[in-house]
Amino acid sequence: MSATRILIAEDDGLIVQDLRERLESLDYEVSGTTPHAREVIELAESLRPDLVLMDIQLPGEMDGIQAAERLRVLNVPFVYVTGCCNDRMLARAQVTEPCGYVLKPYQTRELRTAIEIGLYKHRVERQRERAGLLPICCYCKKIKDVEGRWGEVEAYISKLTGASFTHGMCPCCFERVKKQLDTLEENSSIVRSMIRR
């Protein structure tokens, strides 16, 4: 069985070296490292790692959270390994649906646990998708796509198949609505006759 390949997105060279040593001691393969958010996206596309360890505060015009949003589109799981834990940053990070969140300074067992749970969670999500299970809101009927965004059923199907929609009414709904309209018309004619008296 081949080793799990992990990409590291971290701008502190000492932390990169520490992560590499800890990961290799756990029999993970470090497929690459980068200090830049934009480059982690390019590396994820070319290297196809099994998971990305992502720092939030990375130099450049894009931070780790913005890069993580793009990783979701690429279907690459990620775990934040960061010193950031303020409420605003945590709220932004949660929306990206990471597989884990490890605060610095970290312990080796915390890293391993976050990685293994993250890989398992990602594997289960993919199996559900392949099995034809779609997360759908039981109230508004929006569907959660593979990027983790909630959208209208029509938009989801259109994106998947290229189909466009016209709206009609099935026979069952037509009968139900017709009864409601007939009842309204009957009630309104009763009201009109009462008003005339």
Secondary-structure blueprint of this entry?
Layout: E1 5-9, H1 13-25, E2 29-34, H2 37-47, E3 51-54, H3 64-74, E4 78-82, H4 87-95, E5 100-103, H5 108-130, E6 143-144, E7 150-151, H6 153-161, H7 171-196
Parallel strand pairs: 1-2, 1-3, 3-4, 4-5
Antiparallel strand pairs: 6-7
The amount of helix comes to: 40-55%
Number of strands: 7
| Uncertain segments | none
Q: Give a short account of the largest sheet.
A: 5 strands, parallel
Order of helices and strands: EHEHEHEHEHEEHH
What proportion strand? 5-15%
What is the CA-CA span between the terminal residues?
89 Å
Strand arrangement, largest sheet? Answer: 2-1-3-4-5
Overall pLDDT, averaged? 89
Shape: elongated
Figure out the total of helices.
7
Report the radius of gyration as a whole number of Å: 25 Å
The structure class reads: alpha/beta
Task: Walk me through what this model shows.
- The protein contains seven helices and seven strands, in the order βαβαβαβαβαββαα.
- It is of the alpha/beta class.
- The strands form two sheets. A five-stranded parallel beta sheet has the order 2-1-3-4-5, with helices on both faces. A two-stranded antiparallel ribbon has the order 6-7.
- α1 links the parallel β1 (5-9) and β2.
- α2 packs parallel to α3.
- The N and C termini lie far apart (89 Å).
- 22% of the residues are buried.
- The model has no long low-confidence stretch (mean pLDDT 89).
